Amino acid sequence: MTVEHEAAIARSAEAIRLHSGHNILIESGPEPVIDRLARRDRPVPATPPELWAWTFVVKDMIDVAGLRTTRGSALYGSEEALTTAPCVELLERAGALLVGKANQHEFAWGVTSENPHWGDVRNPRHEHLAPGGSSGGTAAALAAGIARVGLGTDTGGSVRIPAACCGVVGLRPRAGVLSSEGVAPLAPMFDVVGPMATSVADCAHVWRVLSGEAVEPPRSLSGLVVGVAEGCAQAGEFADLGAEVREIALPYEILAPYWTIVGAQARRTHEATYPANAASYSAGVRRKLDDAAGIGHREYRRAVEELLAVRARFSAEMSGVDVLITPTLGGPAPRAGCDEAAVRGEVGRITSVVSALGLPALAIGDLQVVGRGEADVLRAGLCWEAGGGAIPAPR
């Protein structure tokens, strides 16, 4: 093992020790993941790969061969995964070191990462706040220094909401751009895997490994038209970088069909275990599945048609706008110990609209950059970061 690897593993191990009471990682196997890693011998290549000795965590919806995938639940994780998800393989082939499976909201369906089975994830940066969800453990691991980068999943904001609550960065790519093989589903039409990091530069670096798409920061945003929604506080900063800014309204009417589709697909995802094993589900997820009961084919088809119609209308309204900036959170960040059912609608209202529109989005803390392609949002974020933009704190 190289000096770089030993140092990286030691830093992660110390951070894990310091934050052992924060329920950031799920250790469901016979030994901690980092102990298994420490025994592996890695030959030094002639040319070290891109993520050489970078540490990372993966949300426990994602398979890693030899480790258990719990989905944050009490129903799964009795058997080790037989194969590794392609998204994880890409990072490992690039030299990254997996130091843990990250805790999450049960079944990736919630905005607080309160988990009755594996412990509530605590926010290491803002103790009075929940870490967000559902990829709260991944965001918390980055904020705590347990890992340099991570992988989360995002259906309606599950990468971006934790990024805002924990003060890190997360990218939601478009559906289908990255493989979802080896990733447990929630609502497949909207489920994606997304990289998370503590800077836009690191997030773009991981994106290049995952997608093959290199993104370089522009010197300025001159010539770029930036739409501003929800009174985004950073509008002036984008204007200072040379962008033309103009106001634009988000199409909140897309949320009704979106939630119908999510609910119907989640019911199908859980049909083998719910309601037969309802007692093994948390009350919050039971309530969501019960609320989605009875959505039939006609209602589902009508919802899909409505959603596609809103997408087409908004695409026309976005004509001439290169990227859109909004707050990431739809309201104040959820407080530690809050009632998730009471806050999830407001917290996730903006991220859910973006998911429903099928657009990629980059959360830089409580700043969200939305565009037509991943490179568009990363370039804008890189320029903003290079210009001195600090990650906005949650409200």
TrEMBL record:
Q: Which organism is it from?
A: Streptosporangium minutum
**Do you know which PROSITE patterns this protein is assigned to?**
AMIDASES
Superkingdom of origin: Bacteria
Q: Which family does it belong to?
A: Belongs to the amidase family.
InterPro entries per UniProt: Amidase (IPR000120), Amidase_CS (IPR020556), Amidase_dom (IPR023631), AS_sf (IPR036928)
Q: Name one Pfam family in it.
A: Amidase
Tell me the protein's name. Answer: Amidase domain-containing protein
By its UniProt entry, which SUPFAM superfamilies does this protein fall under?
A: Amidase signature (AS) enzymes
